[in-house]
Design a protein that fits this description.
The chain is mainly alpha-helical and 406 residues long. The protein contains 16 helices and 4 strands. Helix 3 crosses helix 4 and helix 8 packs antiparallel against helix 9.
Length: 406
Amino acid sequence: VLLRQYIDRIQHRLLIMIVEFVMLIVGTVVFKFIMSTLLAVTDDAHIGNILKSKFSDFRDFHTMLYICAAEFDMLPLETYVKYVKTGLIPVVIVISIILVYKILSSELSKYRDSNPKPTEPSVAVPTKTTKNGPGSATSKSSRTTRSRKEMTTLSNGDTHGPPVKQQTFDNPAMLYNLVQMVAFGIMAVCIMRLKLFWAPQMCILASLIASRKLFSFVGDYKHHQAFIIVTVAIMAVGGFMNLQVEINILGEYWNLPEEQMLEWIMRSTPKDASFAGPMSVMANVKLSTQRPIINHPHYEDAGLRERTKEVYSLFSRKPKQDIWDIMNRLHVDYAVLDRSWCEMIRGNCSIPFLHDIEDVDNRHRPPTCPTFVQDPDPFSVVFHNGQFTILAVDGAEHSRNFDNLQ
């Protein structure tokens, strides 16, 4: 609002739109930074780090924990192929081109109307003077005067002249959905999981195929209806094939080792005993046994991220005594180990490597997790079934009030 008087001085309407768009982006980022600083909000700091890691060599524990998951990788080529086969991307591309053309044509028309070309001054044509009749000096002078008046009237924009048809296309809702689709598309390309926003937005934009404003060139109403039916029918072929593939997927969750562990927890541990371990396992422990858990998959909370990082020291190269101290400080009664995590060989995505990024002092040590079963001291092995191992934090000197950790 404060800058409106300066923006209105810009002559080109398209340039005004560009300036306003840049100001919107910059203002949003600056406002977000100021508010986050003033309110000390860090819960969403990892989002910026994830985006930074996509375009640079930036790495930290939390970022690697995200981008090592397939869901946070770049959008695979297979997804684009599926969208093309269903006709979604081709239809969206056509609609986007038409919409951009309509908007630019409308803005160009408005610009031309607001800046009319100056008319050339009329020059009196000498006429032959006669005494009487249509060719007389009086008659021709009258016609010349009337012609000049008409030219002056039209050049001044008076409505008495023949109306000039303006090609305008004012539909901010369509433009908004196009911009939103592009934004979601950029996010989905960088992070595969975010295609759940991109695909529905493309479907919304594809529905504009029924807009007469965009597809008036197809013909009359009946021709437009036929065009819609044919297009949807073609898209439905690929969509029906995808639907059949999804329907034919028959699966059943079965994890006997985890069921054995959960039954042992319900049978052999106090109801107020706290547990820590991999986030996915902790979610099942909380759901099935109602035991307090120290960490869980709500990774968008800054405090929980740091707590999970400390719990995951179970899979680091730290000495066992240091790990025990961490578990004791977090009020952990039982620590759960998953053998697949201990034997995880994924190169730069293994949990020990994630700790190596920041835990420089212990990089030379071997991973600690595989040695817990044979030599758990200072912990105690209270459960082991080949897949899961539960370590008791013996002698832990902490209160059993876990209300703030549940």
